[in-house]
Design goal:
homodimer; mainly alpha; Arc Repressor Mutant, subunit A; Tetracycline Repressor, domain 2; 2 domains; 10 helices; elongated
Chain lengths: 214, 214
């Protein structure tokens, strides 16, 4: 059943598009959407990924579950949308004027997020239960793809300014920046702080400037 | 109760020490040890980390559980030892004569392991259930520390040969090499193959040569 004010999950599937480009939404539709996404995050924080249901989310948000299904095709789409939105709010994409400043802000934002409660909660959800809930692997990849799409302009601007060689692959640069931080949290259980973030910037820039990423 | 042939978990706690330096062991003790470690891996492959018990391992290995406790102080020590041994066998430390050859062999070994059944099984165990089984986080860190200790000579030899600047931190180099591979498996769900491994080598060497790691 199409809805004139907020058609399906469309805004969810193009989260990189600036709000100004989206079709104007009626206040009530946007409020329902926000309430459902908040309820999803709250449910996720309280239970296992596999245990989260659209019924439970709808109950918590105070809406009927058909309202949820009108906007999101399934549980995983809902979770991806909720976590993508949370990450976008928690780690804004910088535009400081230099590639070093931008990468430093990105890496430090990621370090704070990984070390904070919302990062810890998201990671716990996204890395557990992969066996029981195969959709989680695709959801995780889609959430990171969204981050990547949002962060790539940082590298494109650096190439335009002549700070990085033309032909460098923006996605590879952003992944190289993020990888050592996730690695510390997930594998070596070392703390991630500003110093770790800054080291990741130095390593990523050196590699990018010397042809490692394309 | 001390055992003359295989004192406590000592060989487990110094796995980097070459076999020749260890005290000679009586055949039976070594056989029991191998049977218990094999049983641990088999139990881990069949059940959740939290569900693994020393009783179950002993039963599968055909030994009494006091035999297990004589060699390992607890369940987590047993799991660390079993997984450390498996990793050491699956990803040997190379000595090809050049830092590029060594890092390439290491990264490709890790890529094969991460993409193969034993890597997938170990990762699933080590990344799930962190909430229910806090010991798992420390176990994971200890397993990686063992890998790091084994791999550091690769970097030390590179510094001796003048291929990398003196003062480079061997641990940081090895972590930089491994991070993008784990990141692909754990976060973006991209395949890791020889090409990904080789790109990690190029990026790590460029960063190491340009002062990113110390």
């Amino acid at each position: 059943m199409p809805e004139p004010d907020l058609p399906g999950a469309a805004p969810a599937s193009v989260p990189g598009r600036p709000a100004a480009e989206r079709r104007p939404v009626v206040g009530r539709g946007e409020k329902v959407r926000a309430a459902v996404l908040d309820a999803t995050l709250a449910e996720l924080a309280e239970m296992r990924y596999a245990a989260l249901t659209v019924d439970g989310v709808a109950r918590r948000a105070g809406v009927h579950k058909t309202t949820v299904y009108r906007r999101w095709k399934d549980r995983d789409a809902l979770i991806v949308d909720a976590l993508t939105g949370q990450l976008a709010a928690d780690i804004p994409i910088p535009d400081t004027g230099t590639v070093e400043g931008d990468l430093r802000a990105l890496a430090r934002g990621l370090a704070s997020w990984l070390g904070g409660p919302s990062g810890a909660a998201v990671l716990a959800v996204m890395l557990s239960e992969a066996v029981q809930a195969p959709g989680i692997v695709e959801a995780r990849a889609r959430i990171f793809e969204d981050r990547l799409r949002r962060a790539e302009p940082v590298v494109e601007r650096a190439v335009e300014r002549g700070e990085l060689p033309a032909g460098v692959d923006p996605a590879e640069v952003i992944k190289a920046l993020a990888a050592p931080l996730y690695f510390r949290v997930l594998i070596t259980a070392e703390p991630v702080d500003g110093a770790v973030a800054d080291r990741a910037v130095v390593a990523t820039l050196a590699a990018a400037r010397h042809g490692a990423f394309g």
